[in-house]
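Postdoc handover notes: sequence design on the structure in folder B. Input tokens:
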């Protein structure tokens, strides 16, 4: 489920966003910049008001990228469930020094790094953050009048960020002047959080939060895991691995004039496998079409074969020898005998059914 992060200025606005369905109460002072901080006092009052009903995050502030300055600001806010730390424009070394300085605080609060889409984001720091004990990473924008998140980063780049964070065990969040129509588009990328301030107010970013605006955003977020994962295989049908029109020269034919030379033979294969899991990401999770291509190359390399029928049966048997294959259809066509193509198509199924 994709959660709603709502940025508020203190306890009063926290009450409003909770009523509107926020999943994370995020404290910040929008009048003081992208990550303008509220005082530890306001943090304490807001935590009291929220009373553990939802996690509370606090931003560390629009700070220079200096280890001591940032560590001190985070230390003052470790009572929050999460503290968000901006990786503002700076050299890689300066950012690394800040990350390292925060390592000792990682078991006192949930550290969340904030990359800025318009502030030279360096996503190669994601593994460094994971190793230093950070709990998550998000992308926001610094310049709140210089366009929405997607004006600075493509959907592909945002999707890569979410995937990379997830692979590293980091929560991910996306924010940056987002508007209601952005929600379904970004929800497709499946970040853990979408974050809002401007879209939750009655007007400007530092105007008061408005319950109707919060509800509008809430209603746009996918309601449950079920709707997030509402994709399932069709009962009784497998997925299909395809090799289409793979043409190789080979020695083939029962006539004398077909011996001692090669001619073009075209192979097409459709192999049925069990439905691929939604979490398939690597070669280890799938049956590769390369195995079929290799089997065809081996047939072509082994010398003369009289009949295309022999090739088709052998190829089907080779493919079905892999226990993951349920059924295979093989087409073998000779391409140099006058018509466009002559050949055979056959289907074989694993004995014993599915
Ligand atoms: O953390 C999220 C931000 O508060 C988003 O603010 P914004 O929607 O005004 O850019």
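Designed sequence:
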């Amino acid at each position: 489920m994709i959660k709603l992060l709502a940025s508020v200025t203190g306890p009063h606005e926290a009450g409003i966003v909770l009523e509107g369905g926020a999943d994370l109460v995020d404290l910040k002072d929008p009048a003081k910049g992208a990550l303008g901080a509220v005082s530890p006092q306001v943090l304490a009052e807001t935590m009291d008001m929220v009373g553990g009903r939802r996690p509370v995050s606090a931003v560390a502030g629009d700070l220079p990228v200096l280890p001591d300055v940032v560590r001190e600001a985070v230390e003052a806010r470790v009572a929050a469930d999460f503290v968000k730390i901006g990786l503002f424009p700076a050299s890689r070394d300066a950012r690394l020094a800040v990350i390292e300085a925060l390592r000792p605080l990682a078991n006192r609060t949930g550290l969340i790094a904030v990359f800025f889409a318009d502030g030279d984001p360096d996503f190669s720091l994601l593994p460094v953050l994971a190793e230093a004990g950070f709990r998550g990473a998000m992308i926001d924008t610094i310049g709140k009048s210089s366009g929405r998140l997607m004006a600075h980063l493509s959907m592909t780049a945002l999707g890569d960020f979410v995937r990379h964070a997830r692979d590293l065990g980091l929560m991910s969040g996306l924010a940056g002047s987002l508007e209601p129509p952005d929600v379904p588009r970004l929800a497709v990328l499946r970040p853990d959080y979408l974050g809002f301030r401007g879209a939750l107010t009655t007007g400007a970013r530092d105007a008061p939060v408005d319950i109707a605006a919060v509800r509008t955003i809430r209603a746009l977020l996918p309601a449950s895991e079920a709707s997030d994962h509402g994709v399932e295989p069709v009962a009784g049908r497998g997925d299909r691995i395809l090799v289409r029109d793979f043409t190789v020269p080979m020695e083939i034919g029962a006539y004398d004039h077909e011996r001692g030379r090669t001619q073009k033979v075209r192979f097409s294969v459709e192999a049925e496998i069990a439905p691929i899991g939604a979490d398939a990401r690597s070669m280890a999770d799938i049956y590769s079409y390369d195995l079929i291509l290799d089997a065809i190359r081996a047939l072509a390399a082994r010398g003369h074969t009289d009949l295309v029928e022999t090739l088709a049966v052998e190829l089907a048997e080779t493919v079905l020898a892999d226990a993951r294959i349920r059924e295979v259809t093989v087409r073998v066509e000779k391409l140099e005998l006058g018509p466009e193509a002559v050949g055979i198509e056959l289907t074989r199924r694993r004995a014993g059914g599915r």
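Context for whoever picks this up: The domain at 3-228 is CATH 3.20.20.70 (TIM Barrel). Don't rerun without checking with the PI first.
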